[in-house]
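Box 3.1 A note on notation
Throughout this textbook, protein chains are presented in two layers. The first layer is the amino acid sequence; the second is a token string describing backbone geometry. Keep the layers aligned when reading.
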Amino acid sequence: MINNKFKILIVDDNPVDKGLLTQILNAMGQDFDVKAAGSYEEARKYDQGIVPNLILLGINLPDTEGLYFLQEIQRKANEDIHVILVSNFLNRDNKLKGFQLGVTDFIYKPIVAEELKVRIAVLCRLKKIRDDQDWAAQKTNEGIKLLYKELENKNKRLKELDQLKDEFVNNVSHELRTPLTIIQESVSIIRDGLLGEINEKQNKHLMNTLENIDRLDKIINDLLDISTIENRKMRLYKENVNINDLVKKVASDFIPSVVAKGLELKCVVPEGPVDVYVDKDKIIQVLVNLVNNAYKFTDKGKIELSVIENADQVECRVKDTGIGISALDAPRLFSKFDQIGRQSGAGAKGTGLGLSITKGIVELHDGQIKVESNPGQGTLFTVSLPRLPVLKQYKNFMDCIREVKLHYNTYSVLVFNIKNPVGTNDILLDELSALIKKQIHRKSDQIVRDNGSVFVILSDTRKEDAMVVFNRLHHAINETGWESSHNGFNGFVIKLVNFPEDVHSETELVNLLKTYKGVGPT
């Protein structure tokens, strides 16, 4: 611990008093560092570079007042200094001035040795307490710094290991794809009899091989998906989708397997379309994972898929009458590689990644997934997706632009602006969007509409290439006779904007689009 000497400065013009004070201090048996000065100038020489812990100060000095000296030493010091005024205090105002200047204590002359010893002993104890606190604080800070450094090194190492893990998973997964595809094709060729006839026993083994190849292919896809989700590298190609169609498609695909197992599959969706702004393929993957999960763990009863339309969100529900999940297992349900013990039979095991991937995809869509279940009473999964009304697509347009800019250095925007439409504007926009969608083949290209325009965002497309798409779309629309099929329809204006040839920022893009419409994306 800190063990600095207790430094004392005696400042008094009376040689007898100086000697007496020095004698008393030496007799205390403490390891004091005592200095004495008979004037302010002499004290200044002592004060240079050394700050005393205690000053025994006489009031009147030959070259200046002691209180002035006190004021100066306090101003110059970087820490508090204890000061004891030593005087006969004939002038009572000196005490008040001393208090105002931060004097610690007072000693009357003639000096009483025992009184002085007690007061200095108290100050020594205070100094020791402060020194111990400073030592503890210093050691604590040093310990905290060491812990931070150790934590920083461990975090750095974890990041390196995590990166190595991701690289390993990606490399191994990609390397497995090619030989796996070759094996699958070879087995299929043999099974199809292209290399000669096969008997029933051989066909059974080949079928078993193909099933295991499919399972291995799913494992590879799961590993790649979880890696891209964790690294926030999974790209979403969003578009306006009728969620009812997706739910119906997934239900239709599962009907043969469900019926063969003796289960009922029910699909309940609203009568009208329920539009959401999502990556269609990813949401299908979510629904397939949930329905497949329900199928594996339901031996009797039914599986029900439903869509519930709310004001600000859409809920997709998958409910089964299976064996359910215990309260202890529920918190681990979405963990990686953690296969919950739902007491399934043989063949119900997977990679343990399906629900983790499902949760990741839903959250990438700014949605939520929750589960309700009790053992023996079935399970209900609810996926909530934010509802973005079709008439408010400007925000979606800018989201698309920002997403495209993250991955590409250039993009083009085609603006189809309807002029003075007659009839229901939504119908015109729906038809125009459908016509354009048939001509757009790349998943990275996006179609976004608002209540007066349709925007086509062509990623990684220069202006001259965008002109080719421009002409193809215009020609395709004219070929359908769509414009002439609407009585009173005044046509539309098509504009082309390229980044960075025409605009260099989102602000410039918005301002330019405002000149086309009078309003622009927000």
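The longest helix spans residues 113-191. The CA atoms of residues 201 and 475 lie 57 Å apart.
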